[in-house]
Design goal:
The chain is α/β, with parallel strands linked by helices. Helix content is 52%, strand content 11%. The strands form four sheets. The protein has an eight-stranded mixed β-sheet, sandwiched between helices. The two termini are 38 Å apart. The structure holds nicotinamide-adenine-dinucleotide.
Length: 737
């Protein structure tokens, strides 16, 4: 066997060690399923084997399924629909996708005791294997996480996970665990009875074998007569306290946009009413259905496959040797600079944090100290970890401290003159190797680079706020940016555990440009008289995590006005809707409503209470709608306007080559500004609908609401030829070409 090693000891206990060659992590692949099948068969049929312990030789136990395997199944399904018809194709997916579930059930019913010796993190199908075993013992390790995170990519656990979890935990807890895709520490897993014991690492295999030797039972509770569900029968008082409210919570959290989440509710509800074998068949039916859903396909592609490609350096120039970044200079110890210093130090790099003088630099570090101490107070960080992180950050006003930095990231005021002055000071001390990056959100990188004598070493690294929480970073190429700068920026972004996308220099780069289209749509609806609450809710229903008015409050209403004015100054008076500008002028200049920062924006932010829409908003609406007119508003159309406005803008950035890779456009849209994740991203949304249908919808909205919905030339062409973004631009095809 390539992936497992089998040793049977003198007591007849088989030790199965999972160790996939050439991989840092074990995953469930077709090969693994085949070999595991043979192992289960061997343990079951060999009378000399009394029981089996399965463990891993890697740091982790298993990372989950190899999702490219599921992607391939999707492709075969699509082919079979064409060649054999939809029913036969669905039958194929059902049979193929339940192989693992049947295998785990054979293991569970083998009549021999199986113990999972969990030596490290176990996720997805790997954790489902553990759940199928009769006993689970883990080695002490604070880093170990156990979970079924499938929901995060539009799937759910399809190898018995939903049924075993719901027979171990209370149903409400089980649903929560499955719907959130939570990753549990060993303590929490033990408290929830998902594992049986935790032992010192050196004793793991011994403890597992001892359990078998002591007569560990090879029958699961649910396969014994008289088994009682932890929460009682579904049709009971307790069951009725769980399932109907769970439906309501599901609706509140997802607006029914996530078929996999709905399926979890369904399989748990249905599965708990029948015996285990029937329950597993129900789970498999739903799993095969969800696997064929466009949402799962789009989410697997963007949130797993593409994200992994980008994280592994899909855009990194292969000719550049790996950089080994040790010391980073951060200029500007303000809001962004402090955040950048934080994530850099958290990755173990030394940081020189510079501001105008020692005192201001110290202030920046002190603000960070306070933010981290708040986390310590809330139990989210150990004080030792905080101190270790802060010890790596040296605040100073002296540029000489930058001397042996590998990379400088500038985050000073958004002011050309201030930036030029900083660039001059930096280049006087850094020598001819270090890379210079600007975190500017609006100034063109190409023009800032002219302040730097060696332009190939100048690049944009655009973090989003708050830096510690946002997962995306845009790397911006100026006209003359060189490969070394790009490779260094990509290595740095990966070191700080963010996902990079590489975009070309242009106004607003990629993410801000598209997110402004979203916020603008909210403003324009508001001016049409649509009630603010309806705007916010329709946006959430469309799949956006935050309504446009809330989002504007977070980013700053005053900043919004500043951007509109700058856009007008650069592109001319027609570039922004005058009524939108007037709305923001009224908000900022007449009403002093800047957003969350001063506690007054589209919302009010009362101390110690949840935010509420500002009652004065209606007075800023030039158009008043009657009750009948409000009732007649087409909510579906509001939802479409939000997504189409953003997707049309994303398509423009793609045509203009601001973003050049469909994977980056999609991953960037979800991680950068939360574009409805169930769609797989802004371009996947268009592909999912079909370019023809999208263009027809965009044109309908254009006729009704204006030019901002007009499909661009590329979209018209794709639609006319019946093509899609991924069909034409998917990276593999590009490489082959
Ligand atoms: P900020 O005002 O909080 O911080 C700027 C810091 O720069 C201040 O500490 C200031 O003292 C310092 N500074 C000013 N002049 C300096 C000089 N000559 N030398 C050294 N330090 C100097 O601003 P911020 O929000 O952190 O923004 C910084 C940069 O990041 C801007 O370019 C901005 O466009 C960009 N950015 C901001 C956000 C955001 O959401 N705030 C997001 C992405 C990018």
């Amino acid at each position: 066997m390539a992936n497992f090693k089998l040793d049977v000891d003198a007591d007849g206990i088989a030790l199965i060690t999972w160790d996939m060659p050439g991989k840092s992590m074990n995953v469930i692949s077709m090969d693994v399923i085949e070999e595991l099948d043979a192992l289960v068969e061997k343990v079951t049929s060999d009378a000399a084997i009394k029981g089996a312990v399965i463990t891993s030789a890697k740091d982790a136990f298993c990372g989950g399924a190899d999702l490219t395997m599921l992607e391939r199944m999707g492709a075969i399904y699509a082919d079979k629909v064409k060649s054999e018809g939809a029913e036969a194709a669905a039958g194929f997916v059902f049979e193929e996708s339940r192989k693992l579930s049947l295998l785990y059930r054979r293991l569970e019913k083998s009549g021999k005791p199986w113990v999972c010796a969990i030596n490290g993190t176990a996720m997805g199908g790997g954790f489902e294997l553990a759940l199928a075993c009769h006993y689970r013992v883990a080695s002490e390790n604070p880093k170990t996480r156990l979970g079924l995170p499938e929901i995060k990519i539009g799937l759910f656990p399809g190898a018995g996970g939903t049924q075993r979890i719901a027979r171990i935990m209370q149903p409400a807890d089980a649903l929560q665990f499955l719907l959130k895709g939570d990753q549990l520490s060993l303590d929490r897993a033990k408290n929830s009875k998902l594992i049986d014991a935790v032992v010192p690492a050196g004793d793991l295999v011994k403890a597992a074998k001892d359990w078998i030797k002591a007569g560990g039972k090879a029958v699961k509770p649910w396969d014994e007569k008289g088994f009682k569900l932890p929460g009682g029968p579904v049709y009971s008082k307790a069951g009725m306290m769980t399932f109907p409210p769970a439906n309501a919570i599901y609706r509140r959290e997802t607006y029914d946009n996530y078929p996999a989440a709905r399926a979890i509710l369904q399989v748990v509800y249905e599965g708990l009413q029948v015996d285990m074998d029937t329950a597993l068949r129900i789970e498999s039916r739903w799993f095969a259905k969800i696997l064929r859903s466009p949402e799962a396909a789009a989410m697997i592609r963007s949130l797993f496959v593409s994200m992994q490609d980008l994280n592994k350096g899909a855009r990194r120039p292969a000719s550049e040797p790996a950089t080994n970044l040790k010391k980073i200079g951060v200029i500007g110890a303000g809001f962004m600079g402090a955040g950048i210093a934080q994530v850099t130090a958290a990755a173990g790099m030394q940081v020189v944090l510079i501001d105008r003088d020692q005192e201001t630099a110290d202030k920046g570090k002190a603000a960070l100290h306070k933010a981290l101490s708040d986390r310590v107070m809330k139990g989210r960080m150990k004080s030792a970890a905080r101190d270790e992180l802060l010890a790596l950050i040296t605040p100073t006003g002296d540029y000489n401290a930058l001397k042996n930095c590998d990379l400088i990231v500038e985050a000073v005021f958004e002011d050309r003159k201030v930036k030029a002055d900083v660039i001059a000071k930096v280049q006087a001390v850094i020598g001819d190797k270090a890379i210079f990056a600007s975190n500017t959100s609006t100034l063109p990188i190409t023009s800032l680079a002219t302040e730097f004598k060696d332009q190939p070493r100048f690049i944009g690294i655009h973090f989003f706020s708050p830096v510690d929480r946002m997962l995306l970073v845009e790397i911006i190429l100026g006209k003359n940016t060189g490969d070394k700068a790009l490779a260094t920026a990509l290595d740095y972004v990966r070191a700080v555990k963010k996902t990079p996308i590489v975009v070309n220099d242009s106004r607003g780069f990629y993410a801000n440009r598209c997110v402004l289209a979203y916020i603008q749509e909210g403003h324009l609806m508001f001016l049409e008289g649509v009630p603010a609450a309806l705007i916010e809710n329709a946006a959430r229903m469309a799949g956006m995590p935050v309504g446009p008015l809330s989002l504007n409050d977070e980013t700053g209403v005053d900043l919004g006005l500043k951007i509109l004015r700058a856009t007008e100054a650069d592109l001319g008076a027609g570039a922004v809707p005058p009524e939108q500008k007037k709305l923001l002028e009224d908000m900022v200049e007449k009403q002093q409503r800047f957003g969350r920062k001063n506690g007054k924006g589209f919302y009010d932010y009362p101390q110690g209470a949840p935010k509420k829409l500002w009652p004065g908003l209606a007075d800023l609406q030039p158009k008043k709608l009657s009750r009948e007119e409000v009732d007649a508003i087409d909510v579906e159309e509001l939802k479409q306007r939000f997504l189409v406005a953003q997707a049309a803008e994303a398509a423009r950035t793609f045509e203009e080559k601001v973003v050049t890779d469909v994977r980056e456009a999609d991953v960037g849209s979800i991680l950068g500004w939360g574009f409805a994740p169930f769609t797989g991203g802004a371009l996947s949304y268009i592909d999912m609908m079909g370019t023809k249908k999208f263009v027809a919808l965009a044109q309908k909205l254009e006729a009704k609401f204006g030019k901002r919905f007009a499909p661009n030339k590329l979209l018209l062409e794709l639609a006319a030829k019946g093509e899609s973004f991924y069909g034409r631009f998917a990276p593999k095809k590009k490489e082959a070409a």
